[in-house]
Amino acid sequence: MALNTQVTADHNAPAVTQILAQFVATHPSKGWSDAVEHDAHRTFLNWLGCAVGAAHHESTQAALAAVQMLEPAPQAVLAGLASRVDMASAALINGISSHTFDFDDTHLKTIIHPAGPVASAAMALAEHLGSSGRELMDALVLGIDVSCRVGNCVYPQHYDRGWHITGTTGMLGAAAACARLLKLDTHQTQMALGIAASQPVGLREQFGTMTKPFHPGGAARAGLMSALLASKGFTASPKALEAPRGLIQVFSTKYDWSEIDRGLGQSFEISLNSFKPFACGIVIHPSIDACVQLRDKGVKPQDIERLELRVHSLVLELTGKKEPQDGLQGKFSVYHGCCAGLIFGRAGEEEYADEIVTREDLQTLRRKIVAIVDDSIDEASADVTAHLHSGESVHVRVEHAVGSLENPMTDALLEKKFHDLSDAVLGQAQTQELIQACWSLGSSDLKALLKLCVPG
Known about the structure:
Layout lengths: L15 H11 L7 H20 L4 H11 L7 E2 L6 E2 L1 H14 L5 E2 L7 H15 L3 H22 L2 H4 L4 H17 L4 H11 L14 H21 L15 H5 L6 H4 L11 E2 L10 H12 L7 E8 L1 H7 L7 H4 L3 H11 L9 H4 L2 H7 L2 E5 L8 E7 L4 E6 L12 H16 L1 H12 L6 H7 L4
Parallel strand pairs: 5-6
Antiparallel strand pairs: 1-2, 3-4, 5-7, 7-8
Helix pairs in contact: 1-9, 2-4, 2-19, 3-4, 4-5, 4-10, 5-6, 5-8, 5-10, 6-8, 8-9, 8-10, 9-10, 13-16, 16-18, 19-20
């Protein structure tokens, strides 16, 4: 006997696809406050630093080698590399590299990393079209708004089901950004979103592997191709997002339609973006911050008998790898993150190198950590107590980790992070020029910035 798996559908959903398409196609250039504009530049700066920093990582190099088998036309720059590839492949590879270190931006309301898909697609297409820096920044703000508003609509049930929401909304944001750059009208943009809606990318099962950073790259490529197809008359359902068998209702048992148009064109999701001081999943950050504070209080790893870590259940669900075997797995280990904070006082990309993650003293310290689920603690908080051999206990509670909206990274810290990622790839002087080009992108030529992305 067949099981009845039918779910009650909403046949009266608002015209989400059309609403978002009209917004993208008609919203005025720089139609937001100076504060939003600055947030957009911070997002682009952080994204590009992450992409450059991972240019020589094995995942980026493997993706480039695979793409080069297709003999791509040299249409677009790859951040931090001398190679050029076709724009769709550039969107893919820059998306992969920007997320490889798990150091990119986070829209905390949904845990989406929005810039990876959107900026990767938009920069590649903008270069090919000869777009201005202003046009690229407009596309970035609008594209991120689309992906995050759809994310708001379906989170957390969609994510809880096992989808990687960065990739499964990112193709929509990338399509919207590219439609804007192509100057598509509302109908064409609606088609671009409809085409993209059939291409969600990403399963949480892939966390800790190279395929996790593939998700924003794959979403970037899918979104760019969707906009190109729409520009040539390719069609899709005009209700591809909201229909009973459309993306949103298939995605999730929860769909809050009010999240789509609440404040649309007045408030912008890019202003809810946060930036990571630590190169790992955002839910680990409060624990790392607490351990850095323990270190600052004089707690030494060799003095610890037991480290008691109290966190929300989501932290262990996402990052509960007790014995990570390499750097990628280390990014999903709250235990390794705590060790990095205590031993090094930081958790940058260097602290997630394979040889660090497998080092004997870190393995020894990891085994002293006892993680306790306490859902009375917010996902964005952590409570850590170091019980010392002396009998003394040292306690730290972090309500809002550095990098959160309540305790954000300053522009100066973002620039330092960029240098830490990019200096070894581009050199200190060129990195500084590139940073300045990012800050002025909204009022300058894109070509100068693209030139600075290439070594030498």
